[in-house]
């Protein structure tokens, strides 16, 4: 696991608090997020020899699932949380897979231009402040090859969810704090519009309902 040099940034951990990390994979299982990951992998249209980056890879669930379905792709994951990456490394190794796991930030990916065929992002975008979301998408577009694909999943809120505090953020965090503020960017089709504004052609959103925490929208976008 490589630790890359980077300007230190504040970040919101996967469960909101570092001490909740042991429950991260439990939540993954009970929420049904694995089904979202399988759909993301199918939509990516991966082929042997392609290079895949998971931005905000957490404990490696999406990378592991990708490697199990596509043994001949190159797996790379980036996350700011070293404890998450340590768990990811163990899980990927136990699955008989290999992956490059780097500590880094979505807003400043330490990879050359046009170096990936597919970029994944699963329930991570809403952890970023508004300006950082645009920075991340610009970086993703930069590291994707001209025919590259972004497959991004994130929470979907409806206007009444956001206004009355009954949406994803409310159930997850008591309708308060940093996450709720950042989820305001996920109302309606805002995520798809943000991706399009970053220079992608975006397919119609696929929506899946989790057993917990409401709806997840899956965006498939190609560089144009």
Automatic annotation (TrEMBL):
One of its GO terms (molecular function) is methyltransferase activity. The keyword Methyltransferase applies. GO terms for biological process: methylation. This is Methyltransferase domain-containing protein. It comes from the Bacteria. Keywords: Methyltransferase, Transferase. Pfam families: Methyltransf_25 (PF13649). Residues 52-148 form the Methyltransferase domain.
